[in-house]
Amino acid sequence: MSIMASPPNLLLVGFLKIFNPAVHQHALLINFSVTAFNILTYSFIFFSMVGLFIYFLTAIKLLVMRNFGFAW
């Protein structure tokens, strides 16, 4: 379950660190567009929320299937 939830979160952290327009790196084209940075940031936040929703939904389903016993 954590495999489904972790990639968007890792992408979000890496994206916010590398493509920050405030850093002023001249090697990357996306650094000059604050609008593109904001759009991609909100999309990664949305994908990480969807991943966490799937994670918790799967955990709840496993607990219900096993009569609220331990899923592992």
Please explain how this structure is put together.
The protein is mostly helical and 72 residues long. The chain has one domain (2-65). 68% of the residues lie in helices and 0% in strands. It contains 2 helices and no strands. Helix 1 runs antiparallel to helix 2 (34-65). The longest helix is centred in the C-terminal third of the chain and has 32 residues, at 34-65. It is rod-shaped, with a radius of gyration of 17 Å. Keywords: Membrane, Transmembrane, Transmembrane helix. The chain crosses the membrane at residues 41-64.
Count of helix runs:
2
How many domain regions?
Answer: 1
The level of helicity is 55-70%
- Globular, elongated, flat, extended or rod-shaped: what is the shape? rod-shaped
Question: Which class of secondary structure composition applies to the elements?
Answer: mainly alpha
Our measurement of the CA-to-CA distance between the termini, rounded to an integer number of angstroms, reads: 12 Å
Please tally the β strands and state the result. 0
Low-pLDDT segments, ≥5 res? none
Strand count, sense and barrel status of the largest sheet are: none
Order of helices and strands: HH
Percent strand:
under 5%
Overall mean pLDDT stands at 74
Q: For the CA atoms, what is the radius of gyration?
A: 17 Å
Question: What are its keywords?
Answer:
single chain; 72 residues; mainly alpha; rod-shaped; transmembrane helix; transmembrane; membrane
How would you summarize this macromolecular structure in one to three sentences?
By secondary structure, the protein is mostly helical.
